[in-house]
Amino acid sequence: MFLSHGYFRDIPNKVQLFDYGARVDGQPEYIGHALYGSAEASEVWVIFKFTYNGSNQVTKIESLGDRKKWSLRAAIFV
What we know:
The model has no long low-confidence stretch (mean pLDDT 84). The longest helix has 4 residues, at 73-76. It is built from one helix and four strands. The protein has one helix at 73-76; strands at 14-19, 30-35, 43-52, 58-69. Helix content is 5%, strand content 44%. The protein has a four-stranded antiparallel sheet, with no helix packed on it. The chain has one domain (3-70). The two termini are 24 Å apart. It is mostly beta strands. A hairpin with a 5-residue loop joins β3 (43-52) and β4.
């Protein structure tokens, strides 16, 4: 599954943020969704964390509800 092909896009009235971390293959480590205009430090984000195998295929997707801060995403999934 390549997220750059558009599986996580076109959500009306939402803003999406992508964090690629150390990855250089175009696949994100985190994706966040919130209402348009939401601040990164607001507790309104739905955050997805992606885990990949050695072939760069998604093997696990973890998700947290709508009361998380995008700015704290790495600390949330430990």
